[in-house]
Design a protein that fits this description.
Blueprint lengths: L5 H40 L11 H28 L4 H22 L4 H27 L6
Helix pairs in contact: 2-3, 2-4, 3-4
């Protein structure tokens, strides 16, 4: 017969109890997961109505025209700000030409007959305008004049 100290018996029985409890808990969690999946299958089988909103061509064109108007307003405000900053006449003329051209382009693009393509064109025009400002104008005008 092997002699086992009392402290080891308690530790061994404790480990066995923990293992039994862990297995029981795993079974309960697995059973709960199965129940949740089965109840979810019942809901997934039913078609739920989701309301989707599709923008019409006329609504998109209206939004594009509104954007072009706001774009021209911001450009006009930037022109007013640049006139108060005391730039040279050549710089003011270049700023004016750039802003008038970009505002006219925004209005022309917004009035295109295909609003989906106009949306893409306005995104490209706005992005390219921002890149021109960051790469060309900002180094020439200085960081204090950034929007």
């Amino acid at each position: 017969m092997i002699f086992v100290p009392y402290s080891m018996v308690d530790e061994r029985s404790l480990m066995m109890t923990i293992t039994r409890f862990s297995r029981a808990l795993t079974r309960v969690v697995a059973f709960g997961a199965v129940i949740m999946m089965v109840s979810g299958v019942g809901l997934a089988g039913k078609k739920q109505k989701t309301e989707e909103y599709v923008v019409t061509g006329a609504e998109l064109q209206l939004e594009l025209m509104s954007y072009a108007d706001r774009y021209a307003s911001v450009a006009a405000q930037a022109l007013d700000d640049s006139e108060r900053m005391g730039f040279s006449p050549e710089t003011r003329r270049a700023i004016l030409a750039d802003l008038v051209y970009s505002a006219a382009s925004a209005f022309t693009i917004a009035a295109e007959p295909y609003p989906q393509l106009a949306l893409l064109d306005l995104v490209v025009m706005t992005t390219m305008g921002r890149l021109v400002f960051e790469d060309y104008w900002q180094p020439r005008l200085g960081a204090r004049r950034s929007p």
